[in-house]
Amino acid sequence: MTISVWRYSHLALAVSSFLLLTLAAVTGIILAFEPVSQKLQPYRADNFSQLTLAQTLPVLKGNYSEISELTVDANQFVQIKGSDADGKNLTAYVDPQTGKNLGTPTRQSEFFEWVTALHRSLFLHETGRFFIGLTAFLLLLITVSGTMLIIQRQRGVKRFFTRIVRDNFAQYYHVVLGRLSLIPIFIIALSGTYLSLARFDLIATEKVAPKIDFDAIQSKPERALADFNVFKDIKLSEVQSVEFPFSEDPEDYYTLKLKDRELAVNQITGDILSEVPYPTTVLLANLSLDLHTGRASALWAIILAVASGNILFFIYSGFAITWKRRANRVKNKYSADESRFVILVGSENGSTFRFAQHVHQQLLKQGEKSFLTEFNNYSVFPKAEYLIALTATYGLGEAPTNARRFAAMVEKHQQPQPVRYSVLGFGSHAYPDFCKFAFEVNQVLSQQKWAVPLVDIHTVNDRSPDDFGLWAEAWSQQTDIPITASSELLKAPTPTFESLTVTSNTRTPQPDGTFLIRLRTKRRHSVTSGDLLAIYPANDHRERLYSIGLFDKDLQLSVRLHPGGLGSSFLHELTPGQTIRARIIRNDHFHFPKKAPVVVMIANGTGIAPFLGMISQNKQQVACHLYCGFRQSSSFNMYRNFLEESQATQKLTQLHVAYSREGDKQYVSNLIARDSDFIANTLATQGVLMLCGSLSMQKDVLDLLETICQTKLNKSVSFFQSHGQILMDCY
Ligand SMILES: Cc1cc2nc3c(=O)[nH]c(=O)nc-3n(C[C@H](O)[C@H](O)[C@H](O)COP(=O)(O)O)c2cc1C
After folding, report:
1. How far is the CA of 150 from the centre of ligand 1 (A)?
2. Predicted model pTM
3. DSSP 709
4. Would you say 308 and 158 are in contact if contact means Cβ atoms under 8 Å apart?
5. Could you tell me if 358 and 446 lie in one domain?
6. Is 104 part of a structural domain of the chain?
7. Ligand 1 mutation target, pool 390, 393, 471, 723, most atoms within 8 A of CB
8. What is the domain extent for residue 270?
9. Residue 105 included in any domain
10. Average pLDDT over every residue of 543-556
11. Pairing between strand 598-604 and 623-630?
12. What is the pLDDT of residues 478-502, one digit of tens each?
């Protein structure tokens, strides 16, 4: 059964009952104070629980001339009805030990009477009772569906009480308080349902009348009350009421209504004339009344009041959650058939929609035709040129409900034209399978013939505006369509630019057009290899990003000169001493891993740049294996000395180079295929693979890794991606 079935049942039940539930909860809170206030009255005997009928009845008979009935209420106050020495009618609370008159019982206060009637029947008699009974039953179902939702959210019964990740106020406390008050609310609902069923005779609660053989009644031996064995055995705490014999005739007897049975006792001999146990249905009805009203315990009454208060909070928070989800429903200006941009959203609780809407609105503002929809609505998009897939991950690294059918839909609907896609995963490092579903989406898309990768998959941790901004920048750079992270989304200070001084520039490009440039920053401590440098070659909004390799105080960029390329031409012309305005962007997801026993670096072309810096910074001599691919050996020559020196100082363990236009004409993926056992072993022993370079290299390597992971490790590549063991930064 999917999470959505429980969720929709939970919601439907809540919607259908919330008005009556609110009323029942409010009146329930008020009524919980009645037992508490009653218990504060001074009518309970100190040693009540030890007293037996054999101790109590003779004392009371001695003190009062006539007693017709003795009752013990839920507060353990003993009350008698009869007449006093002057023959006047008497109803009084008495001390069962001394017989002292403690006071006269008063009627329930009018206010509590009024609230009780409202709580039980809405002043509508049987109709009202029916609706209240139905509400109790719906609450029972809500509790069951809520429990299932918590189990699914926590990934299993065993983890029911483990830490809850805080999403937002309403959601967090809906779950936290839901767990805490689950049992009291379940009891309130079950007992309320039971009492209603009993009230409508759907459960038989008839007590069986005593069967007395009047012919067998004895009048000898005569015994004193205190010597009746049956009275010696019965404690006052077991008694509901004792009806005294009407006359001294031996055929009149004591009727004892206990908690679990009814007895008839000969008033002269003390013999038991009849003993009838109550049916289980009656016992359950009594128990339900105790549990539903809290009449037997002030502490339980307070727990019931708190649980009823929580029901009110659940009504509020439940609707707040639903409101937020519904607020994200999509209204499109352009149809799926006419749009150039298609934005797919996978979201459970709506926050990913906020980011998607943000992108969508910016595209519309720039006059683009953009269509936003849920993953499950994926179909053929005949005019689409760009596909942006934004998705959260849920459960055990699973798809959100509105993205479950995605893989099947992609199989079914092939796009007729090439579409450039980009995947942005939303998740949280609080979960072991970080953004797993997004990685799966990326994998599925990468296998489609029509799909052309535009930007490497990016992830957003805990809705971080900075992470989102990083993707927006990369995407804008590839499309030349500016998408910014608005201040509303960013809620972070505007970027700070800094001036960097050029310290060296090889300028003379290698045959493949690559050159190395070094720049010095004053804020060296806040940058590391794998971060990005954003430059503004034309001093306008156009930004170009380069991966940084850190060498002591310098940031080294490896740049390929593209004829007419905005960024590469600009950098190529720079000479030592010149300064440029730039911005360093932290790229946490592509930093050298802090704990990995082995790091395998895979690069092609200028993708080697961050790895050069990482190797240079590898003072701890963590085992590092570099696999890199170039067109020809001359392209590699500019790195050769540095890498050979690094091997000598054990900052680099092994170096593997592939040339695509020389010798064996190999790609870096061929080297990975050759060393597939080593790669699998690295992953199996918590090592980390890092990929940097072109998207086409990334695709080849990922396809290969998928096969390696499946065949050698029995897991998907997305498992290792989501566990931070495969890091990528490709372009
Ligand atoms: C019950 C639950 C399970 C989650 N499981 C994962 C997970 O396995 N991996 C992950 O990266 N994030 C996980 N998350 C975090 C969400 O993906 C993240 O908060 C996301 O931003 C929510 O987006 P949404 O509001 O659009 O649904 C989980 C969140 C919740 C509430």
Report:
1. 14
2. 0.68
3. I
4. no
5. yes
6. no
7. 393
8. 48-96+207-278
9. no
10. 90
11. parallel
12. 999 999 876 565 444 456 788 999 9
